[in-house]
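Lab channel / #folding
Pinned by the channel admin:
"Please post every new chain as: sequence first, then the structure tokens as a reply. Keep commentary short and put observations after the output so the thread stays searchable."

First post following the new format, from NK:
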Amino acid sequence: MNDRYTYGNSRFWEMFPGLLVWGTFALALTLSFLEPLWVIVFILVFDLLWLYRVIYFNIFVIISWKRHRETSRIDWQAKLSTLPSASAIHHLVFLPTYKEDYAIIRETLRSLKENSFPNSRMMVVLGGEHGDEEAFRKHARRATQEFGSVFKELIVTVHPKGLPGEISGKGSNLNWMGHKVEAFLQEKYPMIADEDLIVSAFDIDTIAHRQYFSYLTYLYCTVPNPTRCSYQPIALFSNNIWNASAPVRIAAFGTTFWLFGELTRSDRLWTFSSHSMPWKMLRDVRFWQKDIVSEDSRIFMQAFLHYHGKYRVTPMFLPVSLDAVWGKNYWESLKGLYVQMRRWAWGVEHLPYLVHGFKHDKQISRSKKFRYFFNHVEGMYTWATAPIIMFVLGWLPLWVAKGETNALIQAAPFTLQQIMQWAMIGVLVSAVMSLTILPRRPQEVRKHTWIVMVLQWILLPITFIVFGSFPAIDAQTRLMLGKYLGFSVTKKAR
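Reply from TO:
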């Protein structure tokens, strides 16, 4: 993609995150040789702040984990019997797909069929791409034969190739699916009110918890102003976790724990990956933006700006399970992981859109604008810089100042080592908690793999840099230089 974004002074804000990152690295390198003491003091303060963040982050993760365990034990379908309004609710599940095998599609449809919510009030939309139309049509026919009579509707759409103003990807496909379904519902089901329809936009490999739609319905019927919020579940990348490589597993668990931490702070929560939202909101914003990569988080910001800041995310403490990155061999898995993390880091593309929207919307408070702006910029900046500052640049000024008699310089290596050891408590918590959210071990996987699941966390510093900092720096540098990314599909297999 070579076209630039077209809102406001977007070029500056495209460059801003990359300039911030590279400016930090350049300043740290330069001062390490000119004024190493200054950098050592900065590193000590930075690492102490990071230790503090690790501690409070783990507290939030544990709170979310406990709520997840409690929520999983409740019969949400039974609780719906106490809510008269729940009987009118219908669910619409969007499943965009591109070159996936029928086994993937079938497993997802089967999980929807076996969900606790009545199938008679569920509609499923299977959306293929023109570039894979022949294979998709075959899969759609098989799906219709097997599941066509299971749900209220099983709708099939094919997204044309090369429509103006689009880039190929999930967002443009979802946009096409949305408009097609809108026309279909107006013609066949005009009696279903927009307010009674909840949409779930799922990746094709998404396996929802059995109580997911019952729980979602309960929330929708009980939270204040339910059409003014999206609903974010826990994302577990665990469908094939036992067969994934160690770095892929660490990245998968890391993403889940990050989301655990965010769910308890809904004031800063955006939507991510597979999630749910009101049909009314989608119609109001005219569906997903079709010229971006990160449509899962952008749809929240579209609604946030459309409703002048009066839109939020309601956390769901039940999971949806997706595939971890898969490859034909170890190297291909690592390459696929890097590409996936870079695509997620491309969420930095939201900054120009965010700034432009805030500039022209006088109804959103300044404090709310600042909070969302700061959280987005700080999150992207930390993603790119923190691992390298802690594990690489932090030791450079110590090497340069070696032999100095300054007491602070002499004590710094010991202090940094102690901080790192304390921070490892967070790693230990993650290692233990990862075992509690693992799916059952497949029979073909050896029993001693449990030991590997614990020992793999030794690789965290390397994974943190190679599959954390590097793809984030890559994404922000590309945006800074105007070398825009397209959408890359994560390979899936059973």
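NK: The radius of gyration is 24 Å.
TO: also worth noting, The CA atoms of residues 129 and 159 lie 5 Å apart.
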